[in-house]
Write a structure and sequence with these properties.
260 residues, five-stranded antiparallel beta sheet, 2% helix, globular
Length: 260
């Protein structure tokens, strides 16, 4: 799944194994979409009088449905979903503010996350596999990773910040592993050499505590990533400079390579 700008409009496209692509959604505003654990797609859209979160099958013919209606003028962006598919995290910016909210799927009410003023809702929201813990980042340097308990819907999120890690460089795109035993995130040092990091999580009486972070691999100029449920394969979005010219690669006799 990827987003594409076409004639001034923003679109969501799906690409399959054979390379064929199909357009499944579009509109005038930028679209950030995520996969649900059951293979559906979530994204937000601004309508005439309100903002809505859309859920739809992963095909061009499937009918979409409104999953939640979010009040406010700023269009929310879907940031994360718990591994059990029940809790969704959103951020909404505007007027110098960056707020976060949660809602339960399906049919839950939106609840403000009540994050502290310096929390980065846009780059650091993560949900534990069971949806009971929310992670977020507070900066500037050093950047602190916090967790907050998420009670059952419709109870509001209680105040209280539990710091579990302090990172010297900016932290982007927190993801929990499907087994809840690690946090994955990108760091952004001053150089172009980004790294994808793993932070071990130890559970004690149902409360997450962090171990020592370690680097999994370097990811030059990475601006985002995703990981499969099994945690063995990653896809990394790379930022290219405006003057970058991509080479054309010709692979001959490629069918013979498939038999090896």
């Amino acid at each position: 799944m990827f987003d594409k700008r076409n004639s001034g409009k923003h679109e969501i496209w799906l690409s399959g194994e054979g390379g064929a692509s199909e357009r499944i959604a579009g509109g005038p505003d930028p679209i950030v979409a995520i996969w649900t654990p059951d293979g559906r797609i979530l994204y937000s859209r601004r309508e005439a009088q309100e903002n809505v979160v859309i859920e739809r099958p992963a095909d061009a013919l499937g009918a979409e449905s409104v999953l939640a209606r979010i009040p406010g003028n700023a269009r929310p962006v879907v940031r994360n979903i718990s591994a059990n598919g029940k809790v969704v995290a959103l951020s909404a910016g505007g007027g110098g503010r960056n707020e976060a909210s949660l809602f339960s799927r399906p049919g839950g009410n939106a609840r403000p996350a009540n994050l502290p003023p310096l929390a980065s809702a846009a780059s650091g929201l993560g949900l534990s596999p069971d949806g009971r813990w929310l992670t977020y980042v507070v900066g500037p340097s050093p950047f602190h990773i916090f967790v907050r308990a998420v009670p059952d819907d419709p109870a509001p999120l209680p105040p209280g910040d539990r710091e579990i890690a302090s990172i010297a460089t900016p932290v982007v795109g927190i993801r929990w592993s499907a087994d809840g035993k690690e946090l994955l995130f990108l760091t952004e040092p001053a150089t172009e050499q980004t790294a994808l990091m793993s932070l071990p999580i130890v559970w004690n009486d149902g409360t997450p505590r962090a171990g020592v972070p370690r680097k999994l691999f370097d990811a030059p100029r990475a601006v985002g990533f995703d990981v499969t449920t099994a945690g063995h394969r990653f896809i990394v979005a790379e930022s290219l400079s405006g003057n970058t010219i991509l080479p054309i690669v010709l692979v001959q006799n490629w069918s013979a390579l498939l038999r090896k």
